[in-house]
Specification:
It contains 13 helices and eleven strands. The protein is an alpha/beta fold and 287 residues long. The strands form three sheets. The protein has a seven-stranded mixed beta sheet with strand order 1-3-2-4-5-6-9, with helices on both faces. Strands 7-11 form a two-stranded parallel sheet. The chain has a two-stranded antiparallel sheet with strand order 8-10. The longest helix is centred in the last third of the chain and has 14 residues. The structure holds NADP nicotinamide-adenine-dinucleotide phosphate.
Amino acid sequence: MMRLAMHVCIAQSEGMTNPTTLLLGGTGKTGRRIATRLTAAGHAVRAASRPAFDWHAPATWDAALDGATAIYIAYPPDLAAPEAAGQIRALLRRARSAERVVLLSGRGEPGVLPAEQAVRDTGLPFTILRCAWFCQNFSESFLRDPVVAGTIAFPAGATAEPFVDADDIADVAVAALTEPQHANQIYELTGPALVTFADAAAILSGVLGRAVHYVPVAPADYEPVLAQHVGPEVAAALTSLFSFLLDGHNAHLADGVQRALGRPPRSFAQYAAGAITAWQPALAHAS
Ligand SMILES: NC(=O)c1ccc[n+]([C@@H]2O[C@H](COP(=O)([O-])OP(=O)(O)OC[C@H]3O[C@@H](n4cnc5c(N)ncnc54)[C@H](OP(=O)(O)O)[C@@H]3O)[C@@H](O)[C@H]2O)c1
């Protein structure tokens, strides 16, 4: 019975005899984009998430790791979670066929360093992607409904953030999973410009053809709103993290996309124009 469940829940592309790339968080914003790209290029991919693979259920790990030669890790809900480093270290100890590891990390976030160290301590070739805020938080995550409602009430003040497009992160991750020159690199991935939340709302207004406002709020007022989506415990941790990340220390650009791919990153406006189908059904329903 258990065996059958594993087969149902771990999505695997054809080609079991090929080296297999394991994507942990394979259904998430970056994981599914990486899966699409690797599959299209003919790689065997195992995209793992719950219930078949669960970070909090080590009994599920070995089936996911079996035969995996390259591993991508997107650790939920945040790599700075206190248990992240220990779980990643324990999982990678069991990854006997692994030849390289790519870790999705955060930028300007001291709390992620123990987890990054756990990856580095394996001695395997590694690539660490220290990312800015994802553009896709506005279309595939907790900011999507506020965009549709026309009011983004969020505790970011007037701080600018160089939002990065998850498609760029996926392009860099695919390169790191398949090309040797990215071994032992840390790439800091940002978009090409600093964008305030008010700028983002103005760009989204233009793309959607309807007003989207940004309203700065206090963290204490935002936390209960986020709790409706992720529960009170995660909301408390994330609200505190957001306040730290958006205090201005990350308001500068980095060259990771250019360095890894030899091309510039996509802008927030390019992202918004391409993401319009993410908001249209909800907008049609609302009108
Ligand atoms: N979002 C950002 O702006 C941003 C910026 C920088 C860094 N990051 C980092 O990116 C990572 C991913 O965050 P995200 O917000 O983008 O999430 P995401 O990758 O879009 O979604 C989380 C993924 O993890 C899976 N998952 C959730 N709980 C799990 C569990 N207990 N065991 C196994 N898989 C589980 C989810 O699938 P199921 O729910 O189906 O299990 C989903 O595939 C985090 O480490 C975060 O720190 C995010």
